[in-house]
Amino acid sequence: MADAKSKILIVEDDLDVAEMLNAYFRVQGYDVFTVNWGEDGVRAAQTVLPDLMILDIRLPDIDGYEVARRVRTDRRTNEIPIIFLTEKRERIDRLQGFEVGADDYITKPFDVQELRLRVRNALKRVSQGSLTNPVSGLPEGPLVEERLSDVIHKSGWALLHICINHLDVFRESYGFVASDDVLRAISLMIHNTMKENASTEDFLGHISPTDFVVILTPVTLPAFQERIRSRLEQSLDYFYPINDREQAAKRPDRLAIQISEVPSVYGRFSSVDQLKKDLLNKL
Questions:
Q1: Buried/exposed code over 85-123 (b: 16+ C-beta within 10 A; e: otherwise)
Q2: Contact, 83 vs 110, CB < 8 A?
Q3: pLDDT tens sequence across 29-68
Q4: Which residue, 18, 76, 15, 16, is CA-closest to 42?
Q5: Which pTM was predicted?
Q6: Which domains does the chain have, with CATH numbers?
Q7: CA–CA separation, 181 vs 187, rounded Å?
């Protein structure tokens, strides 16, 4: 059950979905507020001041992206966690969501148990100051922002951006427990490979739930990149059940790893936001 009656605002124009979510989260012990239009969602966020928003992207008036933009530009609401509900599966749509400040997303049709866990994790991150990812345990949010701010103003650092592609498709086929196992395993492989560099100043964190950033020295970048690419790509087939591996290998939306590098960071970026946007757009 939820602690201390956390408030959830649901912005969803499908009345059946809205009513189902309203009833479900009330049973879980939350105070739930539901609206069906984007403009009403902005006003409700400002008056209710919810602890979390569940926001559909496709709305009858303004879309969820615009709702999120307005929520993020109001000092009263700019820290509210936002989970997008979306039918859009393309990476560019997810990036657009993260660019306007979404904390997480889930695609329709969704597993309500998965949404419950994502709500719980988002609220937990808020209570803990959003310092670590609840699945991988790696730094995210302010810790990553602070470290990236350091490296763009200091010479001698390189970045590696590692992205897990199609984890959402994998989740839809095998469930959120299996997809969380993938995220944890990949996080551990990156961490263990970094330990071989034997540098205590190297850094690993999230810039989105499926995107990692590795901060290391330019001299160690080539060898590290080669090792981690080989290890991650060799591991991907093993996340699938044995009976599905042969067929999964032929699918264009199978799990995949994409890696891009920034060999020299200093002097190239005026802000952390510019750096993160550059990393996300490289893939």
A1: bbebeebebbbbbbbbbbbbbbbeebeeebbebbbbbbb
A2: no
A3: 999 999 999 999 999 999 999 999 999 988 999 999 999 9
A4: 76
A5: 0.62
A6: 7-127 (3.40.50.2300), 142-282 (3.30.70.270)
A7: 10
